[in-house]
Amino acid sequence: MKLKKLAGLISLLCISPAWAIEPFKVTDIRVEGIQRTEAGTVFSYLPIKVGDTMDDTQAAAAIRALYATGFFKDVRLEVEQGVLIVLVRERPSIASIELNGIKDFPAQQLKDNMKYAGLAEARIFDKGALEKATQELKRQYVARGKYGVSVTTSVTELERNRVAVVFNVVEGEVSKIKQINLVGNQAYGEQELLDLMKLSTPDWMSWFSKNDQYSKQKLSADMEAMRSFYMDNGYLEFNIDSTQVSITPDKKDIYITINFSEGTKYTVSNVAVVGNTIVPKEEVEQLIQIKAGDTFSRSALTDSSKKISDRLGGEGYAFANVNAVPTIDKEKHEVAFNFMVDPGQRVYIRRINIAGNDKTRDEVIRREFRQVEGAWFDVEKIKKSKQRVDKLDFFEEVNVETLPVQGTADQMDVNIAVAEKSTGNISAGAGFSQGEGLSLSGSVSQNNLFGSGNHAAVQINTSKTNQVYSFSYTNPYFTDEGVSRGFDVYKRNTDSTSTAVSQYGSHTLGGGVRFGVPIDEDESISYGLSAENTQLILTAASPARLSQYVNTFGASNSNLLGTVGWSRDSRDSAIYTTEGTVQRAFLEMALPMFDMRYYKLNYQHQRFYPVASDITLLLNGEVGVGGGYGGKDLPFFKNFYGGGTGSVRGFESNSLGPRDVNNAVLGGTRRVVGNAELMVPFPGMEKNKSVRLSGFVDAGAVYGPGDLPGSAGIRYSTGAAVIWISPMGPLKFSYAVPLNKQPEDRLQKFQFNLGSMF
Fold first, then answer.
1. 4-90 to CATH, choices 3.40.50.2300, 3.10.20.310, 1.10.260.40, 3.20.20.70
2. What percent of the chain stands above pLDDT 90?
3. Based on CB atoms within 10 Å of each CB, which residue in 229, 250, 277, 318 is the most buried?
């Protein structure tokens, strides 16, 4: 049998003509040595087919092609009587990957990351992938500040051409910033500049903030913060010359040195507007935040350019270009600016595209848009449109983009992408006290019924204290102009014998209709009419004041209620509010057609202040007053109450205000509440806006005639809360400590509520 060896290695085919073979016609191809790989796979990569004429060039190409698959560690070609024999030795497969010494990361997470490097169980073993996975593992530890991490690997051969890969990790200690040196500061003290930086040497909060762990990204952000500080205080020529980061041989301490040049402080000598401003030049000049004689400020300059661009955007010039061109006088240390205004071409909106609304109908979103198709681009209308869609509260996220239409210079499309959330809410409230134990309440509502934007709610509460059966329905666009219409039907049974409220029972049946009329973009009025009947039930323990009311006006009361309301909502978003104001006023009056004669007036004012980019201060104030007219009193079951979630946390719900001789709460005719709450990102979840932590101070009181000594007056509390915009609605857990508790007060330090901010 004549056997001719064609090649063992690619290099052997090329080093000498002695290895050359005479071309021959391939009559058959046979593959030998495969265990896991299918023969068909080899044939698919082999550039030679039966019937081809084979020579040295094709033999070399065949070996290269098979090596390139990564499946084999050795490839040889032989020929026997026109049959091409492909002999291969497969690379081993990975039977297992073991991670030893891992504490900082879940092992499965690291294995998932290794897959991207090409290293995973059941895959072909590749030393290059092993090295890549090792370096990636080290990188993850370095990102956590563990520069001294040690990673060694071992590969053990197993039967059936398999290997076991083991990573042995010594995590080491976190490297800490030992010192930060600033070189070049003269105008400002070193500590003042260090306070601008996120990175710092270890302090008592480092365990929480991790700011003593070096990060290249944090250092870059700190240098930009320092540059902004100098540039906003007149130092036009400020420059960071160099940064050095060094680590000690034991990998424990890091030293950072920042070299910079402050330059000289500059003042503004002149400001002018040049170009086609479209709107009156005087109006543009009023938008400029920096004037002659001011200290140079980069932020004021940037803000001025943005305001001018936005103003031109309101006229349809979406691509307006505004540049502040400086003229620097280095001798006098002055700088003059010419705001070069180029409005470009006026742009109109071709199409508004909506995506992500799998349940909500397009029309529900479109009717909130103030920018319309075919109209000139208006940046303020687009902002207002986004705010209005936000306030629907149907979506977790609302993003609006404006994109130029390809091939045109005067058209744009508006793309709005929404992420829908569950709008079926289970609203609940609960609290716990030693005296009363656990108290619960709840309701079920659907704010976006069948994607129509209509609201329906059913409340069924069968607790011992309050039995409520109610149904309400609201169509927010009863007319195309945005007039809303709603209906309410309800039945309420109250038994207060086990609560802090004065002991009595009542059965109320009622229903009504209401309308809402928009009078401005953020403002509306509402009015309604309803009828109800109340049956009162007193016990032997009922206070004399309640018995006197029943003896005077009877145990059965019917009334026709008229309501008028006004609201104004200028929040930037109803999902994650950072700034804006909410005001509400509401009057309820018993009309003189039936038994009762009373009125109740409530006013609420909320204001959101952006303290920082991710910190918001919320101030809330509420005032309520009520009384009777026509010789009748405010019914005691219409009294104001205070305490608990919604007013002063830390005190039991409805426990504040006037009391009788048995210390039972009577309620009152006047109510005042004030809240201050600072909301910050939840530690460790800064990128998740749906979870926030807050600290708060609450104050409130309920007043009425005949207050008992010590039972009236304002109560204060302070505490912390966790706010979660959950799929079921806003959920808030709070723990409050009363600041001026009186002996008769009932406390409830831990509380939570679902479905409202307060």
1. 3.10.20.310
2. 41
3. 318
